[in-house]
Amino acid sequence: MDIALPFPSLPAHPNDPVPTGGRRAAPAPLHLLRRPATAEGFALDTTAPEEQHFVLSAELPYDHELFTDGPGAFHDVLFPAETMHQAAHFIAQQYFRVPVDRPEAFASSSVDVLDLTPWRRTGRAAHLAMELTLTPGDVVNGIPRGLECVARVAIDGVNCGLNRTRLVFVMPGVHRSHRARGRRESLNDTCPVPRPGADGALRPARVGRSDPRNVLVGPPLRVLDGEFLLPVDPAPEHEVFRAAADGPIPGSLFLEASRQASLLVAAELHGFEPGHAVLTHWRTSYRGLGDTDLPLTCTVSSRRPTRDSAGRPVARMRVVFSQGSRVVASASASLLQDC
After folding, report:
1. Tens-digit pLDDT profile for residues 106-124
2. 83-95 burial string, b = 16+ CB within 10 Å, else e?
3. Which residues have a Cβ under 8 Å from the Cβ of 175 and sit 6 or more positions away?
4. Do 185-339 and 1-170 have the same topology in CATH?
5. Are the C-beta atoms of 255 and 321 separated by less than 8 Å?
6. 121: Cβ contacts below 8 Å, ≥ 6 apart
7. pTM of the entire structure?
8. What is the pLDDT of residues 28-54, one digit of tens each?
9. Higher confidence at residue 56 or residue 34?
C-alpha cells in the first residue's frame, strides 16, 4: 500500500519540473508492505497483538526545502527517522487498533549511522528501504499501550543505519493530567528566553543549514566551564517540526535541535567545520511533554574528541532540553568530522 506522510514538498523524481519558488513540490509515495509471519496473516491480512514486520520503500529527497538544505554532502538522517515515526503511527492505528483519540508520546528514540558511504549524496536519485519490526507491549484487551519500532535502514541496497523508537499510548485523561502537571512545574520557574531568529540570529552555516527558516537554535545565552546554554525554537514554522493540534513538542524537533546545537558547540570547542561534520549517533530519552508556547533551552557539553578507525575526529556531546527547571528530554550525540 501507499501511505501519505506529511512531507508535501518531497519530490517525486529529480527530473520533475521545479515550481516557482525554486523547490520541487510534487509528493512522492512511500510504499509500505506488511510481511505476515503466519499463513492466516498472509491469506486474511489478520494482525495479532504480537511482533509484526513491514518493509517501507521510498526515494530519498533530491531537492527539498528542509531535507536537502545545507552543504549537500550527505542524505539527511532526519528523513528516515521521521518517516519511521510516521509509519509506526500509521501501523499502530491500522494494524494494532490503537484508537485515534489515544495520544501518543515518545519514550525514547535513537539513530545510528553504521556505514557512512551510502549516506553520501552523489547527485543522482537514491532509494531508501527500511525493514520495520514493531513489537507491542502492555497489551490490554488486545490493544497495546506501548510500541517499540526498530528500523534497519538501507540506501541503494546497502545496509547503513539503525533507528529505534519507543512510543506509549495513554488515555486522554491521563495525558491531559500529565501535561498540566508538567506545565505548572515549568511555569513556576520560567524566565524570558529570546526565540532563535530574533536580532543576533545565527548564520545558518554555523548549524549546517543554508535557509535561516530551518535554524532552530540561537546564539549562546551563557557559556560556563565549557557548558553552553542555547535557546531553542519550540514551534518552528516547518511542518516536519509542527506539533499536532494541542500536542506536545514532536520528537523530530529534538533530533534536529540536538544536531544543530552539537554542530555549533563542536565548532566552538573543537574547531569542527559544520559543513563537513555528520551526525552518526543520537540517542534520547523523554522525561516529559514539552509545550510549544513555553520557552525551551538546551544545555550542551562535550568531552575531548577521539578518533575513529580511519583517524577522523569524533566529538561526543550531551544535550539536555529544559523548560524552566523541568527537563523534558536528554540526548547523547556523536559528530564525525569527515575530512
Report:
1. 999 999 999 999 999 998 8
2. bbbbbbbbbbeeb
3. 103, 105
4. yes
5. no
6. 68, 72, 73, 74, 75
7. 0.87
8. 568 888 876 654 454 445 566 789 999
9. 56
Mean pLDDT for 238-256 is: 88
What ranges do the domains of the chain cover? 1-170, 185-339
pLDDT digits (tens, 9 = 90+) for 207-246: 999 999 999 999 999 999 889 999 999 999 888 898 877 7
Instruction: Give the whole-angstrom CA distance, residue 2 versus residue 269.
Output: 45
DSSP-derived secondary structure letter, 49: S
Predicted local confidence at residue 328, as pLDDT: 96
* Amino acid in position 98: V
Q: E strands within 156-244?
A: 158-169, 222-224, 227-232
Topology of the domain comprising 185-339: Thiol Ester Dehydrase; Chain A (3.10.129)
Neighbours of 3 (CB within 10 A): 16
1-170 belongs to CATH 3.30.70.2570: no
Matching residue, cell 551526525: 279
Q: Supply the pLDDT for residue 212.
A: 93
Mean pLDDT of the chain: 86
Which cell is 258 given? 540536538
The CA distance from 89 to 79, in Å, is: 15
C-alpha closest to that of 254 among 339, 179, 332, 182: 332
Q: Amino acid identity of 124?
A: R
Identify the burial level of 27 via C-beta atoms within 10 angstroms of its C-beta, where 0-12 means exposed, 13-18 middle and 19 or more buried.
middle
